[in-house]
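Structure tokens
________________
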Amino acid sequence: GDVIHRMLTATQYIAPLMANFNPSYSRNSTVQYLDNGTVFVVQWDKVYLQGKEDMGSFTFQAALHSSGRIVFGYKEIPVPVPQISASQHPVKAGLSDAFMVLNTSPDVPESRRRTIYEYHRVELDTSRITSLSAVEFTPLPTCLQHQSCEMCVTSELTFNCSWCHILQRYL
């Protein structure tokens, strides 16, 4: 998006493994991507944890398919992920989405307050992330498949749509 905000980046992510990695530690460490039009892949290859290089290198990737399917692949995970310290950087894996609303204060018209709404998060059990493993996310139907809110609310699929008084629309 256009807005970079520390809290927004903490709540909007697609993370096969988020930790305090230092890709510049070794010449052999790389973060590469590939986009062939139907899949976008990011690979972290032989990356090390900052200050914990003796733990070994990690190799993993995230593949985002145009169908909405997401696959996290783990080739080399040298230590159990729960043993990675979160003191310098959060350690997590999964998906999260949020949006930010800029509100003006009626008392101070030129002021803008940022409010971040995290509306969905899927957290992986990091103890299950091991070498030569993978996790696949498949998309559920969404309201975006419909041409109007009325069609969505009356559809056979159950979205649990509800009225959002802030946005003045169904979600």
